[in-house]
Design goal:
single chain; about 675 residues; alpha/beta; Immunoglobulin-like; TIM Barrel; Trefoil (Acidic Fibroblast Growth Factor, subunit A); 3 domains; globular; 6GAL/EXGAL; hydrolase; lectin; GH; TAT_signal
Length: about 675
């Protein structure tokens, strides 16, 4: 489906308005050289030779905040809308609509404020929780076309700002669940969707999606029927009177086998509903659980998924999911995260803003997502107060207001407040824009991108320390650096929000600026373009060695001339690999081919075993490799035919140990140092 674009005036260093922040006047230039000499320093080198696919943007789920605030007084709703989607606010362009499940009419609401999202079904009069066989997806009388008015108010309000819509489900309706409640099963580890309701659930998700499109004049791009399904988060507890007292939100456990059944049912259901939406999956809570689910899917089920969605509430194995997406040649989103950094609710403490900023940097660098999506930037202010979520309170959300406001409230009686996460998030959303391409950076505290038109760049740097830091941007990776090239810092710290400093002139292909302690700085780089000739490590005709990070030994052609083993680096011809071909693709998904410079045998995979095989002269995906790096100087090699990674089997370290392939797992034995040894 063609992607829509949003015509917007995002704020840049050249045109920051007073609405951005307090004290938006031009701030003096960098610290003097004498002062800077006494400070810690770091040199950051953005490398445009390693470009990710075009970034689709920044987004949010609507979920609870939209359900809670969709009927608030106009001035409060508009204030929120501007903070979330306005050019001076977070400038979000992606929205995820939650298809509510909904408990039975006779169940008193026990979910958290905003959590009881109305379902799209219409139960006959007198229906109770015991009545579970009445719904027919083909009967218009069983659909509530006017359901969920509050969340849908938001759909109408923001649809001109949104370039990608996604629908998703936290739980099936109560009558499709094993427990009879949308907050999960009585056994949190048991599948909650009834086996006989799989097709009905698919029809429900597809039908609600189509009705949303028709009612609001939007096109839904992707549909995800799950939310953190293979976890034990979702359970229902009953009180002594048999009434539910918890959990507090919709959720449903579904293991990989059941997920696969839902995917097989959803694909034809979407076609029958005549929506052009693709399937996304599976919105798992962390990359390692996502990988476990994905590896449990059959090839047929994986083929049904057009977009891979993962959350980063856990941060291990990001690179595993990155490589799985490249192996499958599918879009990858970081589709949900929030966090609670610092010590409880605070609107001035920089630690929450710094924690969020570092999480974004890590996600962009290790996961390489096409989009980055908040869970919900708006949280219940009262629930985040001490005694709400915890004894000390919490700082979830970038914006907080009470979820208990009434039609009589005003901005004075229902205050809308922002914390430092709102401020630091804008350092990303205003300067890394849809259409830009994220690029490699050799610093774990920085993320960078080249602009959509290729004639500029941006870099966001996080300084979480208690000391100011001198940051030098080494721009030698760009081919063209104009005489008037400049770097303009835009700083968020305890002293100001998005404060524009004076432009620093690029000198000797570099620019230096001193960032404050506990700050996030966006550097707007003007007058640079292209890729320097010597910037790419991987260049056709050059010769390389591949040395295992875990073993410290190089890939070597065995004595039989075919097998591959590891051996101590001796620079022999058996350890040398010439880059003989590059198969261009979109950014970091391009493919490389390696051959031995002596006998011309190429690095190939047969029956999951890597071999040095005579070159046939024909293109062969089994001899093509997709290369990935986080900028730390090490790489993974994904075989284009099998999706498996080159590795040292069993994490061996002895000479002669076999070089093998295995599914991605972020192990050190799957990472390689690639060294140019061209004579």
């Amino acid at each position: 489906m063609a992607r829509r674009t949003r015509n917007r005036r995002l704020l840049t260093a050249a045109a920051l308005t007073a609405a951005l922040a307090t004290g938006a006047a031009l701030v003096p230039g960098p610290t003097s050289a004498a002062q800077a000499a006494d400070l810690p320093s770091v040199t950051v080198r953005p490398d445009p030779s390693y470009q990710q696919e075009r970034f689709e943007g920044w987004g949010t789920s609507l979920v609870w905040f939209a359900n809670a605030t969709g009927d608030y007084p106009p001035e409060i709703r508009e204030k929120l809308a501007q903070l979330l989607f306005g050019d001076d606010g977070l400038a979000l362009n992606i929205a995820r609509y939650n298809i509510g499940g909904g408990n039975a009419p006779d169940v008193k609401d026990y979910l958290r404020a905003g959590g009881a999202v109305e379902g799209w079904w219409k139960a006959p009069a007198g229906t109770t929780r015991e009545d579970t066989d009445w719904w027919d997806p083909e009967d218009p009388a069983d659909w509530n076309e006017h359901a969920d008015a509050t969340q849908r108010w938001w759909v109408d309000r923001i649809k001109k700002d949104i370039t990608h819509w996604e629908t998703f489900s936290n739980s099936p309706p109560w009558f499709m669940t094993v427990s009879g409640y949308v907050s999960g099963g009585f056994d949190a580890g048991a599948d909650q969707l009834k086996s006989e309701s799989v097709e009905d659930f698919a029809a429900y998700v597809a039908g609600a999606t189509k009705r949303l499109e028709q009612a609001h004049g939007i096109e839904v791009d992707t549909v995800d029927p799950f939310n953190e399904p293979n976890t034990t988060y979702w359970s229902t507890r009953l009180g002594p009177d048999g009434e539910p007292v918890g959990g507090r939100q919709e959720g449903a456990h579904m293991g990989p086998e059941l997920q696969e059944k839902v995917l097989h049912a959803l694909a034809p259901a979407l076609k029958e509903a005549r929506t052009g939406a693709d399937i996304s999956a599976m919105d798992e809570t962390n990359p390692s659980t996502f990988a476990r689910n994905w590896n449990g899917y059959s090839p047929e089920a994986r083929d049904l998924v057009d977009q891979m969605n993962v959350h980063t509430y856990g941060t291990g194995q990001r690179t595993t999911v990155r490589d799985l997406s490249k192996a499958a040649d599918k879009r990858l989103w970081m589709s949900e995260v929030e966090g609670d950094w610092g010590d409880g609710q605070s609107f001035t403490d920089m630690r929450p803003g710094l924690g969020l900023a570092q999480r974004i940097v890590d996600d962009l660098r290790e996961l390489e997502p096409r989009a980055w999506v908040f869970w919900q930037p708006v949280e219940d202010l009262d629930n985040m107060k001490p005694g709400g979520e915890s004894a000390k309170g919490g700082n979830w959300g970038e914006i907080q207001l009470p979820f208990s406001c009434t039609a009589q409230d005003t901005l004075e009686t229902c205050p809308v407040r922002t914390n430092t996460k709102f401020d630091t998030a804008r350092n990303f959303t205003h300067f890394i824009k849809p259409g830009d391409r994220l690029i490699k950076v050799d610093d774990t505290s920085s993320a960078a991108a080249v602009t959509d038109n290729g004639r500029g760049a941006s870099l966001v740097h996080v300084n979480s320390t208690a000391s100011a830091r001198t940051v030098t941007l080494d721009l030698s990776g760009f081919r063209h650096i104009g005489r008037d090239a400049t770097v303009t810092p835009v700083v968020t710290s305890a002293d100001g929000k998005l404060e524009r400093h004076g432009a620093v002139k690029v000198s000797d292909r570099a620019a230096t600026f001193t960032v404050p302690a506990q700050s996030v700085t966006s550097f707007v780089i003007k007058g640079v373009s292209g890729v320097a000739q010597d910037a790419p490590l991987l260049r056709k005709g050059r010769t390389y060695t591949l040395t295992g990070v875990q073993s410290g030994k190089a890939v070597t052609v065995a004595d039989d001339g075919t097998g591959l083993v590891i051996g101590a680096g001796d620079g022999s011809a058996a350890q040398r690999w010439r880059l003989s071909a590059v198969r261009p693709d979109d950014g970091v998904r391009q493919r490389y081919e390696f051959t031995n410079p002596v006998d011309g045998r190429r690095l190939t995979v047969r029956d999951d075993v890597p071999v040095a095989e005579p070159h046939t002269g024909e293109r062969d995906p089994a001899a093509e490799w997709i290369m990935s790096t986080t900028g730390d100087g090490t790489w993974t090699l994904v075989n284009a035919a099998t999706g498996r990674l080159l590795e040292v089997g069993g994490q061996a370290t002895h000479d002669g140990a076999a070089v093998t392939t295995w599914q991605p797992n972020s192990g050190a034995n799957q990472r390689w140092t690639v060294t140019d040894v061209t004579d």
